[in-house]
């Protein structure tokens, strides 16, 4: 056993409102599991949590390489936590590559736990270190805890008769055990998890439990660090909670909408990162009659859903950026035939294959305009992992009530990130009306419209007397038959646009949070909500007159948009793209000036940067 | 229960009020009329019949049938039909497509729909040319064929739809000339009865861009000598004089004459459309002389929707959840008080 030294031995007792922890290691080191265990345990303790898994696109990048680093960041607080946090209070690095690529995020003076066993010459080389950072003094600004995790894991498991690979694989639990001790967390959740997960391999469950406890007691015994980081439960609204990531929340939102509307749920989908987990979740629920169809490609995914919609199901298709590009023509068909269809696009870094596992918001223009012809559809966006549930439900409600496709935008950041979800009961969710008709009136036509919404009726195959044909060719406004009459085409183009515009009568107003008027309004949409919210909260606390308006409805916009924008001296549109919402706002509301704040790095906004940027803009006033 | 007497339909019940707009003399009229005649014999309710098409001349078909229908987008009718059938397995679903629609742009969906074996019917209008876009070669056009997009002759070898379909595990494959309305009506009824994906290739003459492309097989005068109309359980005999037959010589089908070289009717192969092994069916679809028509393969197998339904029942019987609330409140939840 190596001697473990503490470079900064000063021990202090801290009572913290929130901490940010990141676990990093090789893509096979189990960092995602380590992170989710810590998250779940903290949430059950009563903390608010937000997470950020960040992993490479390769299934197994070469071991020890800089681009093979897998990380999981979690922010836990006794206060409201709305992002995974900017700077780290604790970094756990399982190898040199993890240290090298993540050290910059650790706040000076804060704790770094390192598995020194992995700091071999070979691994240092792979991480492109010229000198060993443990020896060259480059870590002197941090409280470094060097631990021989690998050898201690081996030591703990030496009598269990496990193979070397299984032993080495559980070293992540040693790290987790140490962190549990540091933050005074109960190990029971994780111990139960082992029992469940390895029900049929009890020796593996036992081994993991042993290593977890070894890490915990090691930290305790050697008094390496105080376990006095008290993060008290946060004050969250009363209720029953569970931890949910955005993709699961999205899938559950659709389950709820199906039950509420009394329709069967059909998913036509083709696997694509980071949207695939929605398919994974929905295929599990055949018990609810979910028809989850893994199609041969993206186009079959969406078109099978269109077929199912024609036949009367609540039909959805799920994809990510490049897949949405492939689905474009079919979305036009759904729009033309005026059938309900939800298209979920879990955005990722683009263009083309881009950055499959990283987040971005660069598909907004594609969602709004990426089809041939005049083909407006409803576009909405979720903004947090938990509210993916609400917006999936809302997407289903809007498509059924307005008989036109809805594109629901989420992104990799909220899709994979987790947070507490206050469980909703079906009975508390809004009603969903459909336009299904089952009887023929004297004058019935398939394109007869509801006076208020302009939605057409939904006559489903199998219903006697309502036989009719739909298709991609232009429709006569009365009969629905094919029509090339010039005036009719213009009329139908206008009415399809008007139908989408009228959705504004059915959606909530835009709200400016913190301040309804003032010097600066931060505008955002989608998954940047947490960062903007935190930044504005900080600015507000310091007395700045800053508001935050977040768009969940992107087509149509909320009716009061101009009114909200008019109350601020300056407007900053913050997006993880080159200014797509800004472009749309400029054309829709040209009376305002927009300052853009953009980031295209495959990463979320940093709250610190947003605060600094905002202060600068206010100063320039 | 008053509704015990099934309504008796006539072909008129399935004719829509839309004017049919194909070129005069097109085989599509024959196919449409045969379908309108076949539908009353299928024992399905008008409201349960759905026609789905892609793009092409053939794909105007749904407009002309008075039932439910969708004229969709190029190549995707197979996927749309699959969605319709999965959503409601009780419907009688007909996919209308052409050689361009299903073998080029929709090739991927075409092979996968056959592999899965949903209980639906596909009519493939094969005219070895692109009609609607006015005369380019298609995936079934012949090598050397001169078209608008191959003025010096086509250099892309053709697909044989039957061969492709059997390679993709089609359980039902039939072929017929576009000028055989009586057989066609009967064939459509057979296809509907068949449980699984039935694929019917119609050799459909395009009078404008590829006139006479199948006359070597379909011309009334020579038809009986150039085609063999296969029927399950019957010997593979053809010819005006009913004196020609097929035998297996090694790994090849060979034409023999009954009464010559000691060949008797006993020596002629008996058609078995219903066997699982499709080796002989593959040989039959590739045969150029005589051209095999009729139902070449008709092997009943479990359908995709049956397999899905069985799995759903299994999952349902094991699951503790019938309402989504039960799922939401299950597993690891915690209270904030």
Can you walk me through this structure?
The complex is a heterodimer of chains A (621) and B (337). Chain A is of the alpha/beta class and 621 residues long. Chain B is 28% helix and 19% strand. With 337 residues, chain B is α/β, with parallel strands linked by helices. The longest helix of chain B is centred in the last third of the chain and has 15 residues, at 304-318. Chain B is globular, with a radius of gyration of 23 Å. Chain B has 11 helices and 12 strands. Chains A and B meet through helix 1, strand 7, helix 9, helix 11 and helix 12 of A and strand 1, strand 2, helix 2, helix 4 and helix 10 of B.
Would you kindly provide a brief summary of this structure?
With 621 residues, chain A is of the alpha/beta class. Chain A is built from 20 helices and 23 strands. Chain B has an eight-stranded mixed beta sheet with strand order 2-1-3-4-6-5-11-7, sandwiched between helices. Chain B has a three-stranded antiparallel beta sheet with strand order 8-9-10.
